[in-house]
Amino acid sequence: MALERRTDIGPPDYKQFLPPIIKENYGKWKYHEELRPGVMVHVGESGDKLFTVRAGSPRLMGTKGIRRFADLAEKYCGGYMRFTSRHNAEFLLTEEANIDPLIADLAEVGHPVGGIGNAISSIVHTQGWVHCHSAATDASGVVKAVMDDLHEYFDGTTEVPGKLRIALACCLNMCGAVHCSDIAILGVHRRPPKIQHENMKKMCEIPNVVASCPTAAIRPAEVDGHPSVEIDEDLCMFCANCFSVCPALPMADALNDGISIWVGGKVSNARSEPTFSKLAIPFIENNPPRWPEVTEAVRKIVEVWVDGARKYERMGEFIERIGWPRFFELTGIEFEKEHIDDYKYAGLSFKRSAQIRQ
Amino acid sequence: MADSQRSTPLLDELKEGPWPSFVTQIEEMADEGKESCGQLLELLERSYNEKIGHWKHGGIVGVMGYGGGVIGRYSDVQDEYPAIAHFHTIRVNQPQGWFYTSDSLRTICDIWDRHGSGLTNMHGSTGDIILLGTTTDELEPTFAELTQNDFDLGGSGSDMRTPSCCVGPARCEWACYDTLALTQELTMHWQDELHRPAFPYKFKIKNSGCANDCVASIARADLSIIGTWRDQIRIDQDEVRACAENGMNIERDICGNCPTKCIEWDGNEMTIDDSNCVKCMHCINAMPKALRPGTDTGACILLGAKAPIVEGAQLSSVIVPFMKIEEPYDELKDLIERIWDFWGEHGKNRERVGELMQRVGLGNFLEEIEVEPVPQMVAYPRDNPYVFYEEYYEEDDEEDDEE
Amino acid sequence: MAVSVDEVADAMYDLVAEYQGKKKFKASDLTKAMIEKFGGEVDKKFCKLAIRQLMDSGRCVYTYFGGSFIEVPHEEGAAGGS
Question: What was the ipTM of the complex prediction?
Fold first, then answer.
């Protein structure tokens, strides 16, 4: 007999997944301390201690990998674990003596421990060529290459002045909402959509397509007897919004797609207010499998920050203090026309004072 | 390599190096006999060679009655990779705070091994468990097994997206309200809005327990609920002195970094002008044993964040400077429904609520959602004199406000 | 109310079917159309019930192309080969 169809039940109640120590100290934590890279202890008003070990993960996981996490949670944590908003896995221990064996077991299965406090944490990212229809670059591959390179800043081998959050989105849709990251790696298209006139009528609603363009570059037109659209290419800023509503306007183009790099954004309110990331490098060609030009550019920016930033200073705060001209000078990045905003409110980003470090 | 047919020299390079490899994760599943994973590797290798993706967006597949939770995905080279011709994503609503037991993780794994590729994202950007890759025929059976095990789908399309939250009071002393309880309640309260798209476009809710905003709500959520307090930072002077004795430069690192310079340290005692404190969290972050948020806690409610598509990226901006966040959360729910009513009535297709706020003006928007304007909502008052006054007097207007 | 959820769901279906291939409706479009058609007899909440009835019956499906719409089930364009 078929089971009754259940809908609208919502997620399972989280309370059943909380370890007993958390249930007992819920809302009654007093303070926490970082014991060493990737390990912290939370101490309750009760005096109870909860140890957290944070492990990096590729985010894209097979069930086999998840089962390994489940096994480790059972072996060391009474079967309890959680994930973080940056895709790390966190193991919650009550026995301090279990920390070392857990870390050793994690190392055995390839998961480094780190990313807590003043460190580089895992890269929030999107699907890329693994699964996305609008990607201008891969996501997981670039992330793997960059994290392999920056590993020393994740596991605490090299100390950093403050938090550094990197995010990657494989197109301007920004499923990873990377626009407020210390370093954002963003896939970009640079060629206007190639119009499939013969598919336009059957795949898309032309008025919707016309309305979708933020710069009004798209107009209805009949082409070779097909009701279709024409695009004023000078007005195209490659947002791909038209492609989102109409698959007959593909944007992806191997010769023109690539990566841009943005810096200095943050979401935390600590010290300075949350702010957007700003353009550092307009375009780097896709160069799989390891995107060496991207990893090198990111490393250079990180090193400039590590060398120059004061304690706690985030990338944006550091650049604010030294000024953008000095940032470009220190990183060796060439300042180009693309760095100057020319969309709505562009004027707000112009330098409107004579306060220049000459 | 177990599958001698498969040749992926470019991807193989990504199995090396200290960071855990997604290629290894996919390959393991291929070696377990998942044909789809083997073909996914081959297709990805092709993308690495050609520098272009090979996926098409589907727009119709889903489970019966729901308009969210399934993302249709098809390969554009189906004949060559038949096992991934259909490769749909299922979004599964995560438990709040992303807490799991090993049993619950294995339950999800078992279901997904039976019905899909075995590949996942733990987790997606919005917070859901992402089950990556299955065929149209497997959608209903997967859904049936998930719901039998108390899991349900998350949002997609023009609906309320799966709300998410930080770890909150479960493991953080800075949580100014119960982020997990609130997120669970909002998710349960609006199941229809989550599963049956009825909005102009997506609507994301993210709940952070303090201004550190660990779920990036101010950047990533249309509605950002960020914990704060309105009384005094709790100071343990002995612990402050201990920090100084342990070498902390309190003058430079704490007082000097305070955005409103409201902290003083005389070498023996710390004093804070709480009336001028903006609750940024820096001093508390830096001295977690010495300083704690106050006890009259609640949240600041901000609205309108989004990524660039369509009209440009926005951060959320303040609509309620302080609200107590307590069960049954009626004040908050009423506010959200007033926002949805106005947006639902006037929003254009694909217009996020933040874009509507810009289009009609924040002042008009506030009027429509019945919220009084207060100075906390602006960084500074307008500096342009083009004011859209809505009424004016005529010479012979009579005084009619004598009631 | 004099009009039943079924009747409103039927009216919604007729509207979607009539314009299939010409115009796509969002849930809010259907709600507005029903309020216009039935006047004070239906409101937003009532229409929500009708939409749920319509979708659960399988006569219509939700579709997504840069926004969610309600349509009569049809073959997925992208499902075909290259």
Answer: 0.96
